[in-house]
Amino acid sequence: MMSPDIVLELKGVATSCLCGALITVVYDGIRIFRRFVSHGNFWIGVEDFVFWIWTAIWIFSVLYRENDGNLRMYTIFSMVIGMILYHKIISEPLVGVLGKWIKKLKKGIRALIMKVTWRKKHGNKDES
Length: 128
Description:
- With 128 residues, the protein is mainly alpha-helical.
- It has one domain (4-99).
- It contains three helices and no strands.
- α1 (4-36) runs parallel beside α3.
- The protein starts with a helix and ends in a 6-residue tail after the last helix.
- 12% of the residues are buried.
């Protein structure tokens, strides 16, 4: 049987890995949003600033909850491992596929808008 202290530390490592993965999931959401809604560098900077403020608060809350506020390198290391694993295993394929779907969706929406606006301008020739 493992020591309760070791089990608690392992739980903290697992929580930190999941926390790192969650941070990367949130940033993937921002990346996907950026592919769907194009905007300039100013707004990208604002999004990144808000993301990093949220990330700092999130990491602090995890450290506070799991380690009584103590900064332990294995906790940070576990978060980084969670980020890397999520990014390599899930994020790259997911964002790639969603990016392709978003491009197709945007192309379809543009074509529909062009068709509707053309019919409004030139009238519906099917009715004659």
